[in-house]
Design goal:
It is built from 41 helices and 28 strands. The chain is an alpha+beta fold. Strands 1, 4, 5, 7, 8 and 9 form a 6-stranded antiparallel sheet that branches. Strands 12, 15, 16, 18, 19 and 20 form a 6-stranded mixed sheet that branches.
């Protein structure tokens, strides 16, 4: 086989390559059944034919002009492949296929005639109605099932079948006589609401199916009858559930429930349109809901035995409230008042005498929690745990009271405040958990500060509940840094001085001094702010730390010079340059800094030797004499400023007169240059001194002198010596400022304004001290080590002044608000309140804690309005009497009557009953009678009994 040819042929998708057969006919052979929806396929082609196109045709007969018929070919649209699924339109027609080769030759198959369709259709079935026997007006009937088949064997699809419908109804009394229903030509038919009135009682439907040009009509469907009988019967059964609008037709709740559930099942079985014919379904729905309510309440009553004593009163109250919501129609389900009687038996009014007695005892116990002394209240139990025990006992006894009488217990504010105070004290004690003797002093002081802040916020009553040991622990923690402060002050004092540092360092001790200073600085930084304020000389210590670094550099330079001077072969110029530069650096140091340079003396005595070469000048002797004079400038301390200035001027003039050759012999001229710079520096400093001297304002001069002091501290040691006389004179003759603040006095005064959590001074004094502090400069403020005391006092003054505003505004109109604000003050804040006001508040507090017998008696009277859930006889007069007495109570006493709502409920119920009675007309028409019956039917059982008691003639 030629594989290359085969593969080439296989790549041509639209043509068939058929091997040549010697005996093959020159036609196209087709296989398949001549049935609609079957597939006809080209099976064989002529020899040597390469086909690349197909077309299927209908072979039709067309009449010619002479009356004969000729054949014509009509292409079948879209039929251009080697196979054809026979379309519906081909039924009864003759078809063939034409194949075209690549060279234009055409070959045809033998014509085939497709079988005609012979359709059959089944009898239509219907659905959509509630019962198998009837269809109700409003329901929609639907053709559910019709099957169309072809006897000739064509397998038809649903999309090839078109259906049409027509509905009919039976006309007259003729058997199987039906007439068309106009417009009823769909697959569904909705029964008109008035179908029966129009004579449409029995209906059928016929279905016609079309496939292509073939038609078939179905037999008529089964006859469906239209009737209201199911819904009419259901409506009548529902109607019979009621005797009247306010009473169900019930003798036994269980059988009644079974009956309405059966009716509900029937109703739910109806279609939605059929349900619309049941116009009184709301009655059935209401009956179902009412029976459910009655049953649930019965179940709740049955569970009473399993309810705890604590929850029982509230549980019974819920049951009573639920029954009170039932109207007359609902209560008619409570056959023979069985449920009502059960509920009534559960009701048990409190034993008034015993409970009132217990209320009075508890009122006194609560009042006795407090005692009063000097206008300040405190708890009688001396500590937190004792107070907690008493509070727990009182609360337990209150819980034993019935719900009606718990509200009669007075002074619960005292009880609630006691609980809140206990909680505050417990939180305060809990804060000590963070305090440990193992902590660093800094940590102890920091924690103590936080605890002290909480302590300061405790009220006097709360403070008295705190055990003494916690105050001792707090004080000890606050003073944890005191020994550290004393040690650090001593250490600093041993290191600092006015003119020189007293440590006398050496090469061997140098590093230990550096380390000690660093340690002291670190310790200072670890202190709390308040403790750090007690450290003296810290600024000087920081200066010393800087001076050590500065001096160390000069020390190293001097050591380097000494080492260099011992090296053989070093040039004079190099050695001289090293000495000169180091000396300049040394001379720039302050006296304090120079006192740290332990190798200075050895350096100064080891001056470099300078040789002079060349011709000897005539004025050599003068040069050497000048050199000797300049050498004296190496120790400036031997001169006063004026002496040095004069000597320097003379030396400078002499130096100028020397010849250039002679000047070489003045090898220490650098000392003259340094002395000249010292003179210039001191003169500049003198100008600052003069400016300060000329200032006549004491305060301004003090600031200028402060500037002079800072400048003096920065002067090199030589200049400090030269300027010292005038500097000290300035300080000695400073103008005394009579108005300058006395820092020590202010600190001392602040330390004494409070003791034992009580201020010993007035608000005015604290405000005065505050003003004194505010007038200080920022630097002076840093010296007030007792500022925290002042800060707390200022805050307490604000609280006290705020209270005084409340007092002045409300002490007559609203004393309760004043007392409440007073009780929020801390112990220290209370001490700022005038004693007469404290006494007034104390008297008011005790006055408000008196029990009120009238209020308690009124509580008893209100409770007596109901007996076992039913109002007493003569309710109206009794309510009026109680109302008069209640209105006469003070606003404070009215708050005690916690069952006041029972009085207003009774008043409301009397009005409701009176309003219903007003609708009653002895000779009224039917509408008036119905209005009264409707209103009466809505009354609860309790109000129904009250109505019968008040207006017995209306219900006879």
């Amino acid at each position: 086989m030629n594989k290359k040819l085969f593969l080439t042929a296989a790549a041509i998708p639209v043509a068939l390559i058929v091997p040549t057969l010697a005996s093959a006919a020159e036609t196209v052979t087709v296989t398949g059944q001549n049935i609609v929806n079957e597939t006809l396929t080209v099976h064989q082609l002529p020899n040597n034919a390469i086909v690349n196109a197909y077309q299927w045709y209908y072979l039709e007969k067309v009449a010619s002009e002479d009356g004969s018929k000729t054949s014509t070919n009509k292409p079948i649209a879209g039929a251009t492949s080697a196979s054809l699924k026979v379309p519906v339109e081909a039924a009864g027609k003759t078809i063939f296929v034409e194949a075209t080769t690549t060279d234009g030759k055409k070959y045809q198959s033998e014509p085939r005639t497709i079988n005609q369709l012979d359709l059959t259709i089944t009898t239509p079935t219907l659905e959509g109605f509630s019962t198998s026997d009837f269809v109700a007006p409003g329901e929609t009937v639907k053709v559910a099932g019709v099957t169309v088949t072809d006897k000739a064997g064509a397998k038809l699809t649903s999309g090839q079948i078109t259906y049409s419908y027509q509905w009919f109804y039976q006309l007259g009394e003729g058997e199987n006589s039906f007439t068309i229903i106009e417009g009823a030509s769909g697959s569904t038919y909705t029964i008109p609401k008035d179908a029966i009135e129009k004579g449409i009682k029995d209906i059928i439907v016929k279905v016609k199916a079309q496939v292509g040009t073939s038609f078939v009509e179905s037999p008529r469907s089964e006859v469906i009858s239209i009737s209201k009988e199911p819904t009419d019967t259901l409506s009548n059964d529902i109607k019979n559930l009621l005797v009247n609008d306010n009473k169900y037709n019930v003798s036994d709740i269980k059988s009644f429930e079974e009956k309405i559930k059966a009716l509900e099942s029937k109703y739910q079985a109806l279609s939605e349109p059929a349900k619309g014919n049941v116009s009184n379904y709301a009655v059935l729905k209401r009956a179902l809901a009412d029976v459910d309510l009655i049953n649930k309440l019965n179940e709740k009553v049955d569970k009473v035995g399993g309810i705890s004593d604590k929850d029982l009163p509230a549980y019974i109250k819920e049951i009573e409230a639920a029954y009170d919501k039932f109207d007359l129609l609902q209560r008619s389900l409570d056959v023979n008042d069985a449920l009502y009687t059960s509920i009534k038996n559960l009701l048990n009014e409190p034993n008034d005498l015993e409970e009132i007695k217990e209320v009075r005892r508890l009122n006194l116990a609560i009042v006795n929690l407090l005692s009063y002394s000097n206008g300040i209240s405190q708890y009688v139990p001396s500590d937190k745990d004792s107070l907690q025990g008493v509070v727990n006992t009182i609360e337990a006894d209150i819980a034993k009271l019935s719900q009606n009488y718990r509200g009669a217990v007075q002074n619960l504010t005292i009880l609630n405040e006691a609980k809140a105070d206990i909680k505050k004290v417990e939180q305060f004690i809990k804060s000590f958990d963070k305090l440990s003797s193992n902590n660093t002093p800094n940590k102890q002081v920091t924690v103590a500060k936080s605890i002290r802040s909480t302590y300061e916020k405790l009220t006097y009553k709360q403070l008295k509940l705190v055990p003494d040991k916690y105050g001792q622990l707090l004080t000890a923690a606050e003073s944890a840094e005191e020994s550290q402060i004393a040690t650090l002050n001593n250490d600093i004092d041993s290191y600092i001085g006015d003119d020189i540092y007293p440590i006398n360092p050496s090469a061997s001790s140098w590093q230990s001094h550096v380390n000690n200073v660093a340690r002291m600085v670190k310790e200072y930084k670890s202190l709390t702010k308040a403790s750090a304020a007690q450290i003296e000389g810290y600024d000087s210590l920081v200066t010393l730390q800087k001076d050590l670094k500065t001096a160390e550099k000069v020390i190293k330079d001097m050591d380097a010079y000494q080492k260099l001077s011992g090296v053989t072969g070093v040039t004079e110029s190099k050695l001289n340059s090293s000495y000169t530069n180091t000396l300049k650096a040394y001379n720039k140091l302050t006296s304090l800094q120079q006192s740290l340079v332990y190798n200075a003396q050895e350096f100064l005595l080891n001056t470099p030797k300078v040789s002079v070469d060349g011709k000897v000048p005539a004025d050599k002797a003068a040069a050497e004499a000048l050199k000797a004079d300049i050498a004296k400038f190496a120790d400036v301390t031997k001169f006063t400023f004026n002496q040095l200035e004069k000597a320097v001027d003379t030396a400078a003039q002499s130096y100028k007169k020397l010849s250039s050759g002679a000047r070489k012999y003045v090898t220490n001229n650098y000392l003259l240059t340094a002395a000249q710079k010292d003179i210039t520096g001191v003169k500049s400093f003198y100008k600052k001194i003069q400016t300060a001297k000329e200032e006549t304002d004491a305060a301004k001069q003090a600031k200028k002198i402060e500037s002079v002091q800072k400048a003096y501290a920065k002067l090199p040691a030589n200049q400090q010596h030269l300027a010292k006389e005038q500097y000290e004179a300035l300080l000695k003759n400073q103008i005394i400022d009579e108005n300058a603040p006395n820092i020590k006095q202010l600190n001392d005064e602040l330390a004494t304004i409070v003791s034992n959590d009580q201020y010993l001074v007035s608000i005015d004094k604290i405000n005065t001290l505050s003003k004194q502090y505010s007038s200080l400069s920022s630097s002076d403020k840093k010296l007030i080590t007792n500022y925290d005391i002042l800060k707390a006092a200022i805050a307490d003054v604000k609280k006290a002044e705020s209270f005084m505003k409340t007092y002045e505004k409300s002490f007559n109109s609203n004393p309760s608000a004043v007392i409440k604000a007073f009780e929020k003050l801390t112990s220290k804040q209370v001490s700022l309140i005038p004693s007469d006001i404290q006494k007034w508040i104390s008297e008011k507090q005790q006055g408000q804690q008196q029990t009120n017998e009238q209020a308690l008696t009124l509580i008893e009277s209100i409770n007596s309005l109901l007996v076992n859930g039913e109002y007493i006889a003569g309710l109206e007069d009794k309510v009026k009497d109680i109302r008069t007495k209640y209105d006469a109570l003070s606003a404070q006493d009215k708050k005690i009557v916690k069952n006041y709502s029972k009085l207003t409920q009774a008043e409301s119920d009397l009005k409701k009953v009176a309003d219903v009675h007003a609708l009653y007309k002895v000779d009224g028409d039917e509408a008036a009678q119905k209005a009264w019956q409707s209103a009466y039917g809505k009354l609860s059982k309790k109000l129904e009994l009250l109505y019968k008691n008040m207006y017995p003639q209306d219900t006879k």
